[in-house]
Design brief:
The structure holds 2 protein chains of 2 kinds. Chain A is of the alpha+beta class. A 5-stranded antiparallel sheet of chain A has the order 1-3-4-5-2. Chain B is α+β, with helices and mostly antiparallel strands. Chain B has 3 helices and 6 strands, in the order βαααβββββ. In chain B, strands 1, 2, 3, 4, 5 and 6 form a 6-stranded antiparallel sheet that branches. In chain B, strand 3 and strand 4 form a beta hairpin. The chains are: A alpha+beta, B alpha+beta. Chains A and B meet through helix 1, helix 2, strand 2 and strand 5 of A and helix 1, helix 3 and strand 2 of B.
Chain lengths: ~130, ~130
Amino acid sequence: MPVDSSLVGRSFPPTPPYDVTAGKVREFNLATGGDGEAVPPTFPIVLSFDALFAFLAAEQIDLFRIVHGEQRFAYERSIEVGDTLTATLTVSSLRQIGGADIIGTTSEITDPSGALVCTAKATVIHSGAAS
Amino acid sequence: MSTLTAGDVLEPRTFTITRADLVRYAGASGDFNPIHWSDRVATGVGLPGVIAHGMYTLALVARAVEAWAGEGNLVEFGCKFTKPVAVPDDDRGVDLVVAAAVARVEDGRATLKLEVTCGEEKVLGLPTAVVRV
């Protein structure tokens, strides 16, 4: 079943506040070939995918039918251990190509003051069931 | 601070990706999509088998970029995931090669022209990295 086209422009509730801890950053670094303490450039995907997975669940879209088509980050500042962040996802585009839904999303990652830390744009491809 | 100059060709970096790496990345990132650990599910949705998380591939590209440009200097970063990186269920895994040249430097920012390949095939489309210099 195609994804509801009225979703375009809709924003979803912010994700629960996420504490960036030294342990989590170390784990992420070790899992991506690093050994440092600094927050690496793709770490915001943890926030962005929190928002994306909540959106997919809300729309009853099966995760296993999703592949990641495109990802873009624009950084306003570095993320530091000790930051508390939330992500707010907006559906920015939707089109159907050959039975697949191409879903464009923009997640704004903000700190408790509301200041923008990073914009993460994810495009995912949803392949509908064969029936 | 990095000393990138337009026209520089940067030393390519190679990363080996195994199934164990994908399991570890799933845990660290929270992305448990079964197409990254189950051949049954992956082939059921038309993939060649288990594929690497696009964001795992991009995380390795970020390692290369930070090795060339220094940590914490990225301003913009991203790509299209145009070809899946299939990761075989063996001890060898697959090699990802990240090559780059400095396309231009202006206003304190360098734009890298990246090429990311797996078995001679480009796996990322329009990979973009803009770094402070």
